[in-house]
Amino acid sequence: MNYNDTTHNEHHTGYGGYVLIWLILMGLTGATVAVSGIDLGDYILFTALLIASIKAYYVVTVFMHVKFDAPVFKIFILVALFVLLSVFILTSFDVFYR
Amino acid sequence: MNKPIAEAIEEPLSHNQEHTHEQHVHRDDTGSKMGMWLFLFTELLLFGGLFILYMAYRHQYNADFHSAAKALNMTLGTINTMILLLSSLTMALSIAAIQRAKKGLSVFFLIATLGLAAAFLVNKYFEWTAKFHHDIYPGSETLLDGSSGKYIFYGLYYTMTGLHCLHVIVGMIVLSFMLVFVLRGSVNSDKNVQLENSGLYWHLVDLIWIFLFPLFYLIH
Prior knowledge:
The complex is a heterodimer. By secondary structure, chain A is mainly α. Chain A has 4 helices and no strands. Chain B contains 9 helices and no strands. Chains A and B meet through helix 1, helix 2, helix 3 and helix 4 of A and helix 1, helix 3, helix 5 and helix 9 of B.
């Protein structure tokens, strides 16, 4: 018996699936460049980061296979992101309201 | 899905050991991947710290950051973003190919990934050379005479994109090793966690660029 079966014989995403995600990522890149030309005032940074986060989501879930990995990986990543976000928020309170 | 770990622990007990010993060497792909992710989290903290620095200084020198960023070449930045996204695709396809036992296709996509990485570095070379010609580099007279916000912006620009470049180079070295392993057959349809982990690293390099790009090239 081969205990690696679970990680090796699962072909969740076909070649076409990856190409589709890539096309979405290219579209989002075009969108973020186009949006940067519009004066959105305070929302420029917000929009740019929002689009970047959507792109990051697709890369992590599909290209990095997290969508198909064990739940423990998702928990790992969420905890790491929570730590990073906490540090960002706490620092920003210090920086913005000093 | 803790199954592989649980089974790996139980296996020697439930099987005839003499028989299984020859069958396979102990291997834990899930554990291997977990280790890679832990390493990626340290990378996240490394770049996260620099992004915090960027956030704090952008808050302090907002106007200077905007005027300084105008000198950056948005077209070159966009092309590099597309190159890295395409290289992420070829990386994912290379792994998909080896898992389907298509060695030739996997090798082709790996070489494509390496080529795109090299193209990214060539672009970066031209971009930085142009900046040097305009006397914009850490310690240059133009920057020393300019506003401190501009100086800090370019300090962050060179540090963050430079560190990212270093990661691209390391990624290329790792992927070159993988190319040899795939060619030799030690990475194959059954055993390819090394290639998967290298892919994770490569995608991280892409992820960091996804955030660097709008923060440096798209502020006007």
